[in-house]
Design goal:
The two termini are about 50 Å apart. The strands form 3 sheets. This protein has a 6-stranded mixed beta sheet. Strands 5, 6, 7, 8, 9 and 10 form a 6-stranded mixed beta sheet that branches. The protein is about 35% helix and about 30% strand. It has about 375 residues and is α+β, with helices and mostly antiparallel strands. The radius of gyration is 25 Å and the shape is globular.
């Protein structure tokens, strides 16, 4: 390549400051190509808490359990990233093929008798085989994870008392003890410490106090803040009771509301709470998945200008680009003191790509004719929550 203004110092053709030298070195180490970092971009392809229950020959019980766990884990992941009606119609490949897609298997717990094995597994898959399988079947899927959402659980008991903090909030307790998940929408609940209690009340949360909700979101490094009220009814004469769910997601793109009413055994309010947690998770994950379904065979390319003020900014942008699973390739076209010129190929449409970038604290502003400007998002310099 003939040296240009941004490369002259390396070739001894002129003076170049230390920042530019470091920027150039960072670009060369990049190898001209950026791909998603597997540990970050593929975390939706991990299934945890997969139960197995096998009976048979004692010598092969664990082997049978692993095969079963891999198949059930694949079903779980497909259900989380693709539309349920399309997943239901899929014919999965053989156990041997599925096993070839697996990166590793972890036994969370197990109990084994002479001919009976019960266990729970975590299974990690390679992303590419699953993507190729869905693409060959013409099934759209979502693999962009949202930033974690902060969920504020407000509980109204059967006597009509509403509360947010303290031991009487059974709804908060149910969220605190929920099983871990690697789904598209990671959810965190507040600790309920003195700072939380002094910042936000149940009335303020239900009233949508934006400054205080935004402050809570920043404290927990959350993208959106979700206010989820659960109202428990008294036990009815039929031995049943209801749990009314009223959920509002507060995000940069506005607010979104969900409502549902569950019924259950009046003698088992805890079970109704667990069902309520699963329902709210499904609401939030379903809405996110629907908005981020990508045609696996759709590709686009954009030329991007990245203004730079120093090496730290370039390193941060590189790292964040590696977190965006929609990116299929990034070519470094030019690197100069004032910025970098990239050519990015990605899956999905432009709106989905911009949304995926925002989840990695990157902001892309299109300027027309396949051109755009890429910068770090405002929240990338936010102070971590204590």
């Amino acid at each position: 390549m003939a040296p240009t203004g941004g490369f002259r110092g390396i070739f001894g053709l002129g003076k170049i400051n230390n920042i530019l030298a470091l920027l150039l070195l960072a670009g060369l180490l990049l190898g001209g190509l950026l791909l998603p970092t597997p540990a970050l971009a593929q975390n939706v392809y991990v299934a945890s808490g997969v139960p197995v229950d096998v009976t048979g020959d004692a010598a092969t019980l664990r082997d049978q359990a692993v095969v079963m766990a891999q198949r059930e884990a694949l079903k779980k992941i497909l259900a989380e990233i693709a539309p349920a009606d399309q997943v239901a119609g899929l014919i999965l490949p053989s156990d041997d093929v599925i096993g070839g897609w697996v990166s590793d298997v972890e036994i969370e717990e197990e109990k084994m008798a002479a001919t009976h094995y019960i266990g729970r597994y975590t299974v990690r898959f390679q992303a590419a085989p699953i993507q190729e399988f869905l693409g060959s079947e013409g099934v759209a899927f979502a693999e962009t994870r949202s930033k974690q959402m902060l969920l504020i659980p407000i509980f109204t008991d059967e006597t009509g008392n509403t509360g947010l903090w303290g031991p009487t909030n059974q709804w908060l307790a149910a969220w605190t003890t929920r099983p871990p998940s690697n789904a598209l929408v990671p959810i965190v609940v507040p600790r309920g410490d003195h700072d939380d209690q002094n910042t936000l009340s149940a009335t303020e949360a239900l009233g949508g106090n934006e400054p205080k909700l935004e402050f809570m979101g920043e404290r927990y490094q959350a993208g959106d803040v979700v206010v989820a009220e659960a109202r428990m009814s008294p036990a009815g004469a039929d031995g049943r009771r209801s749990l009314a769910l009223d959920v509002t997601r507060h995000g940069l793109d506005g607010t979104e509301k969900f409502q549902e009413t569950l019924t259950g055994d009046a003698a088992d309010p805890d079970g109704l709470m667990v069902q309520g947690v699963a329902t709210v998770q499904a609401m939030l994950e379903g809405a996110w998945k629907d908005a981020n379904l990508v045609d696996p065979n759709q590709r686009a390319t954009v030329s991007v200008h990245v203004p730079l003020a120093g090496i730290e900014q370039w390193v941060a942008i590189k790292r964040r680009l590696g977190q965006v699973s929609l990116i299929k390739g990034v070519n470094l076209k030019e690197l100069a003191k004032s910025g970098a010129e990239l050519e990015i190929s990605y899956a999905g449409d432009e709106a989905q790509f911009i949304r995926a970038l925002s989840q990695a604290d990157l902001m892309m502003v299109p300027s027309g004719e396949g051109m755009a400007t890429l910068t770090l998002g405002a929240s990338s310099t936010a102070t971590p929550a204590p």
